[in-house]
Design goal:
The structure holds two protein chains of two kinds. Chain A has a domain of 203 residues: Four Helix Bundle (Hemerythrin (Met), subunit A). Helix content of chain A is 96%, strand content 0%. Chain A contains six helices and no strands. In chain A, helix 1 packs antiparallel against helix 4, helix 2 runs antiparallel to helix 3 and helix 3 packs antiparallel against helix 4. The longest helix of chain A is centred in the middle third of the chain and has 210 residues. Chain A starts with 6 loop residues before the first helix and ends with a helix. Chain B is an alpha+beta fold. Chain B has a single domain, classed as OB fold (Dihydrolipoamide Acetyltransferase, E2P) (Beta Barrel), CATH 2.40.50.180. Helix content of chain B is 18%, strand content 41%. Chain B has three helices and twelve strands. Chain B is globular, with a radius of gyration of 19 Å. Chains A and B meet through helix 4 and helix 5 of A and helix 1, strand 3 and strand 9 of B.
């Protein structure tokens, strides 16, 4: 998860850890300083002051005892006042000590000192009364017997108290020194830990950031190389696009000229189409007249066909008559042959008859021959008539076909007229469209001119981009060399 | 178109017809033989005019049962029923077409021979007729007639009639 942290997050986390360690070290140091200071205060302000007060207590006791003894020697009032002042001071010091001491033993010892001091003071009061009433000797003896032991005991107890306070002061000093040493050791350890941790964090951060930055720099280097390549391609493409746009601009200019020519041609086509429509109308009228003429021709052809058919029938009738003639000739021939046969059978008497029969036979043969030739002619006439009829029928069919073709031509002329009208309309629309197209081409030409300018600017921009990419590649290489020299090498 | 027939042809024909009546009589010549040229089973033959009595166009032939195989039937010719015999069968030929003509002849009674075609009548000099017995016709052709460069077999009607008579059982064939 840490690997996914950002550079800022990692640095912030590292500094946060460092700050935490510093805060901990500072807190520990402050705590140690406070502890040491407290210990020192206790040593200085409690134990040392107690010891001082204990010394003052001894001093006050000594002052009071000295004033008491001076009164015993010289029962003057001033010694008595001195003795009282010393007592008062002793009590005051004792009262301050009560406030200073904290241990039960010290309080008990102070209570015992207070009790012993009261007893000694009472015994002194009685000694003083004896000095005043009975004289020095009595008072001294009484003092030696009563007061002195009390005072010794008081001094012993006070000395014990002072010794105790001195011992406590030494212990407090030792304890304070020990704590100070511990604090120094703890703070030193914390500082060492903090330094070590800071070093580890710095190393980790350095490695991590170096790795990340190096990777990023490599990415930047790779991207800059790709950008450089892309910029080169873009520059090449922009240059080619610029060239192409120039060519397109030139072509569009030529197209504009061509569009103008097309518009003029379309206008001429519309004019010609109108003239063609008029000519088609005239042609339609001519075709109608021609159609009427063809119909008349067809009627004539029908009459010719009818006459030729009649001629064929007549020829057939002539053929029938020729058949009869031929048959008559054949019969005449046979009759003449039979006559010749009869003449031959008649012997000598029939010879002359045979000559006549022979003449008749020859005549019949010649008639038959001519009849045959006539039949041939009639057949030829019939064949010619049939051919003529067929040709005439073919002509009639051709006339019909021609008529049909003329009808188709008429329809074609009508269609031509309609198509010419459509063509005229289309030519006008083409003219209008061409004008619109010309306008559009002009606009496109202007746009392409702008696009060519933009392309040239793109080409220049691509050059700048290429230069920037080259600088970026150099910079990334330099940065990589700084961040990861072994990789850059 | 054949232009052989014209007004001049008609005039020629008319002059020849008139000349036939105006011409002097021609004397008959004795050394001429009159032959009727015919076609039977696709072959050309000739008949002596003196051996036949008449020619007739074929009429309806009514078949009748007979032991004579060459008998085609009976036909009405010139008001009489005449038996009709197939000349091609008599000559031993295979008939290819239906005969169209009858040749009438006379033996005990009148009979008719059916032939395919009557070509015409010709006259040849008798010197142009010569005997020829080896013609394959069952003995019915004994002479050939030379007509120009061609030769034509002359059918012997007498022999034909004799054959019919023999087939009809009216006579006995002569011993060779």
């Amino acid at each position: 998860m840490i690997q996914e942290w950002t550079f800022q997050k990692k640095v912030t986390a590292g500094f946060a850890v460092m700050v935490g360690l510093a805060v901990l070290t500072a807190a520990v140091s402050i705590y140690a300083a406070v502890t040491v200071a407290s210990s020192m205060d206790r040593v200085i302000f409690v134990q040392a002051r107690g010891l001082a007060e204990a010394s003052r207590l001894n001093a006050a006791s000594a002052r009071q005892v000295a004033a008491f003894r001076m009164f015993l020697l010289f029962p003057e009032e001033r010694f008595l006042q001195e003795r009282n002042a010393g007592s008062q001071e002793f009590l005051e010091v004792l009262g301050r000590l009560d406030k200073l001491v904290i241990t039960d033993e010290s309080k008990r010892m102070l209570a015992a000192i207070r009790q012993r001091s009261a007893e000694a003071l009472e015994s002194q009061n009685r000694t003083i009364a004896l000095r005043q009433s009975k004289g020095q000797e009595t008072a001294v003896r009484f003092d030696l017997a009563e007061t002195f032991p009390l005072r010794q005991r008081l001094e012993q107890e006070a000395t014990a108290f002072v010794n105790r306070e001195e011992r406590l002061l030494d212990e407090a000093k030792r304890e304070s020194n020990t704590r100070t040493s511990i604090v120094i050791a703890v703070v030193t350890c914390l500082g060492a830990v903090a330094v070590l941790f800071a070093a580890v964090i710095a190393l980790l951060l350095g490695r991590t950031l170096s790795r990340q930055v190096g990777s990023a720099v490599q990415h930047v280097q790779s991207s800059s190389a790709e950008l450089q390549t892309a910029s080169t391609q873009q520059a090449t493409g922009a240059r080619e696009a610029s060239t192409a746009m120039n060519e397109v601009s030139t072509t569009m200019s030529e197209l504009l000229v061509t569009s103008r020519q097309i518009a003029e041609s379309a206008q001429q086509v519309a004019h010609i189409a109108e003239e063609t429509a008029q000519a088609a109308g005239a042609g339609d009228l001519t075709v109608v007249k021609t159609q009427e003429s063809i119909a008349a021709i067809r009627q004539q052809v029908d009459v010719i066909v009818s006459h030729m058919l009649d001629l064929g029938k007549k020829s057939q009738q002539i053929g029938g008559i020729l058949d009869i003639i031929n048959e008559l000739a054949e019969q005449t021939n046979i009759l003449s042959i039979n006559a010749t046969i009869e003449a031959a059978g008649a012997g000598e008497a029939g010879k002359r008859f045979a000559v006549v029969g022979d003449e008749i036979r020859k005549l019949a043969e010649r008639v038959a021959s001519f009849t045959k030739e006539t039949r041939g002619l009639i057949e030829e006439i019939r064949g010619a008539v049939n051919t003529t009829v067929m040709a005439t029928e073919g002509g009639s069919k051709a006339v019909d076909a021609g008529l049909q073709h003329f009808q188709e031509v008429t329809r074609g002329f009508k269609q031509i007229a309609g198509m010419v009208a459509t063509t005229t309309q289309a030519a006008r629309e083409i003219e209008l469209s061409t004008k619109q197209q010309m306008t559009a081409v002009e606009q496109v030409n202007a746009a392409i001119t702008g696009a060519a300018q933009a392309t040239r600017e793109t080409e220049a921009s691509s050059g700048q981009t290429l230069q920037t990419a080259t600088q970026l590649a150099s910079l990334s290489h330099e940065l990589s060399r700084i961040v990861q020299p072994q990789v850059a090498a | 178109m054949n232009s052989a027939i014209g007004p001049e042809v008609l005039d020629e024909l008319r002059r020849a017809f008139d000349a036939a009546f105006a011409a002097p009589a021609v004397q008959p010549v004795d050394d001429l033989a009159t032959l009727i040229t015919i076609r039977v089973a696709g072959q050309a033959f000739a008949l002596r005019a003196t051996e036949i009595t008449a020619l007739a166009k074929r009429s309806r032939i009514v078949p009748v049962p007979s032991r004579v195989p060459e008998l085609m039937g009976l036909a009405g010719i010139r008001g009489a029923l005449v038996p009709v015999y197939d000349l091609a069968s008599i000559l031993g030929l295979s008939r290819t077409n239906e005969p169209q003509w009858f040749v009438l002849t006379q033996c005990e009674a009148q009979l008719a021979l059916a032939v395919d075609e009557i070509e015409g009548l010709i006259e040849v000099r008798k010197t142009n007729l010569f005997t020829h017995d080896t013609f394959p016709s069952g003995g019915h052709v004994r002479q050939l007639a030379r007509i120009g460069t061609d030769k034509r077999a002359v059918v012997d009607i007498t022999a034909v009639v004799e054959t019919i008579r023999q087939h009809a059982g009216l006579s006995v064939p002569a011993q060779e």
